[in-house]
Amino acid sequence: MKEENIHRKTIKRIEYSAIMVFFLIIIIIVWPSLSKMFYNMRHDSAITSTKGTIETVKSFYVNVNLTNEVALPFKVVFTKDGYTYYENGKKVNYERQLNIKNDGELPKEGSVEIQTDGTVKVENLTFGNFKCNQTSEQNLVCDKDDN
């Protein structure tokens, strides 16, 4: 009787070990796909957030221009503490400070500049581990920041 209990316990341990090994193998097989999927989701999120920030800065520029004449280039520099406005390279404080309202998160650092020809220049907008820049072809490029 005692020998039978020991035999059952041993079989249960082997069964549990086999199940654990099976799940471990499945995780090892699926892990690269999951990692790639999560990377793509964060990358797409950074691109979407950058596009949203650009549109927010453009609409902010239009709103400010309704009450004050705003000189170009108009630049918004983002830091972890907030953001600062620049007109024609000089820091500006508006009489009535307007807040940038964005549906998503604001970048931790970087800048968006509306240039004199109306194009937008994006430099190092940081969302999570991604830094986004705008190339000369007006395409957004977001690369993972390994720092």
Structure notes:
The structure is a single chain. The chain is rod-shaped. The protein has a five-stranded antiparallel beta sheet, covered by helices on one side. A three-stranded antiparallel beta sheet has the order 6-7-8, covered by helices on one side. The protein has one helix spanning 2-67; strands at residues 74-79, 82-87, 90-92, 110-114, 120-123, 125-127, 130-134, 140-144. It is α+β, with helices and mostly antiparallel strands. It has one domain (2-144).
Give the helix/strand layout.
Elements: H1 2-67, E1 74-79, E2 82-87, E3 90-92, E4 110-114, E5 120-123, E6 125-127, E7 130-134, E8 140-144
Antiparallel strand pairs: 1-2, 1-4, 2-3, 4-5, 6-7, 7-8
Return residue spans where pLDDT drops below 50 for at least 5 consecutive residues: none
Rg, Å, rounded = 26 Å
Structural class: alpha+beta
The biggest beta sheet is recorded as: 5 strands, antiparallel
Number of DSSP strands? 8
In what order do the strands lie side by side in the largest sheet? 3-2-1-4-5
Distance between the termini: 63 Å
Mean pLDDT: 86
Number of helical stretches of at least 4 residues:
1
How much helical structure, as a percent, in the residues?
40-55%
- Quote the beta fraction: 25-35%
Note the quaternary state here.
single chain
Total number of distinct structural domains: 1
> Could you spell the SSE succession in H and E letters?
HEEEEEEEE
Shape: rod-shaped
